[in-house]
Amino acid sequence: MTTETTTTEQKQKPKVIYQRGASEAVYGFGLIGACVYYFSHATTIVVGIIGFFKALVWPAILVFEALKFLHL
User: What is the pLDDT of residues 31-65, one digit of tens each?
Assistant: First the structure.
C-alpha cells in the first residue's frame, strides 16, 4: 500500500515549466553593444577593462541617469 500511495503522490505533483522572456536577449545584445562601444573608445588596457565592467552594469546606469533627468 505504501508504494501505491507514493506512486499516486508522484502523479499528482504539478509539472512546473519556467519560461524566460525576451529581456535576456535584449540584455545580451546591449552587453555586446556596450562592450564594442567601450572597447572602441578605450585608449589603454585599463580603460578597456573598466569599460567591460561598465558594460555589465549599463542598465543600472541608464535607469539612474533617466531618474536624475526626470528629477525623481
Answer: 899 999 999 999 999 999 999 999 999 888 888 99
| SS3 category, 22 | coil
Give pLDDT tens digits for 5-32. 555 555 677 777 777 667 778 888 888 9
Alpha-carbon distances of 11 from 1, 3, 5, 55, rounded to whole Å: 16, 12, 10, 46
Q: Closest by alpha carbon to 42, among 53, 50, 31?
A: 50
Mean pLDDT of the chain: 82
Which three cell numbers mark 16?
Answer: 512546473
Residue 26: all three cell numbers together:
535584449
Residue 70 CB-half CA count within 13 A? 7
